[in-house]
Structures are given as structure tokens and as C-alpha cells.
Amino acid sequence: MAGSVPPAPEFGETLPVEASPETVAFLARRRSASAMSLAAPGPDAAQLADILRLAVRVPDHGKLAPWRFIVIEGPAKDAFAARVAALADSQANPAKANAALRKLNNPPVAVAVISRHLPGEIPEWEQRQSAAAVCHQMLLAASALGWGANWITDWYSYDPRALDILGCGPDEKVAGFLYLGTATEQPQERQRPDATSLTSRWSPN
Asked: What is the CATH code for 40-186?
């Protein structure tokens, strides 16, 4: 995979705001890999630690870290998938629910990003958005390091029984499952929205 991750800057270190053509080029062509295409090997413990270290460098009003990670891999991932699969037939569309489990079974590494609301001055909405930012940053970090990556929420992100299996608390939600591995096929570009048609400019008139 790609080169090593630079060490974290020291607290208070000046971090210049400067152009990064390489980052722009990467973002211009960023594309999630299909979860179905992800195979072993996945990132090892040290590589995953780097990805998570990059993932937490997101906007976080109040410096609350209103999120946590649950890594699911190896035999534990097989056990988790089996317990979740037992719930599929009770979903509104059992066939679709069972088919969705293939996205969970294939990738060698899954990371559940758990969003938590910490009472205080920071609105819950902002805390939940920070968890979504962590998911996206993890997706970018893994992709930039050469891993296939996919951010998914599916029915097992919302079923209370699945959340119990995962170990979520009463006020915790799954912001996403990040599936990581080696992409066995290259993703193709898809249709993208036209940003200009979604943009307006406020006027006092």
C-alpha cells in the first residue's frame, strides 16, 4: 500500500494553510470501492491505527470526540455476521436484508463508527455531524493509503437488536460501517450531481 503516515504534529505547532495539488487531484477522482470487491488482505493493526488517527482529525465543536470505534475482524467478524444474519428474516424485506449481508461478509475489516450525544452546550445535531465527518475522513484516509474502502449503513445499523449485539449504548447510533480491504476490481465512475444546479446565492432582496 501507499507510504507511511507522517507523525502527528505537536500540540500548538503551526500548521500552514497552503495549496495541495496532490490532494485536489485525489479528491477529483475519489471513488468508493464496492464492498463486494473487498478481499484480504486488509489493513493490519498498525495500518488501521494510522487510518483511525487520520479519521479523528475532523471538525469537532467543543472538542468532545462524540464518537468511538468498534473494530470487527477475523473470527469475531464471522461471529458478528452470524448473529446479525439471524435477524434478517424478521426484516420488512427478508430477501433484501439477507442480500445486504454479503457486504458485511466479504471485506476482511469492518469499523463501526458509533455516534454518541454528550449532553452540554454543543447541539446534538453538530455532534452527529462530527461522527459523519469521521466516517468520511476514514474513507478518504483509507483510499489515500491504497485500500479499497466503502462507507455503508444498512438495516443492521438501525435494528435495536443488532445495535445490542454490536454493544451500543442507549443513546448511541451507528454513523456507518467502514469496510476496508484490497479491491479486487477497480471502481468505475458513476453519475455525479451538478453542483451549479444545487447552488444559490443569498440576497437581501
From this structure: 3.40.109.10
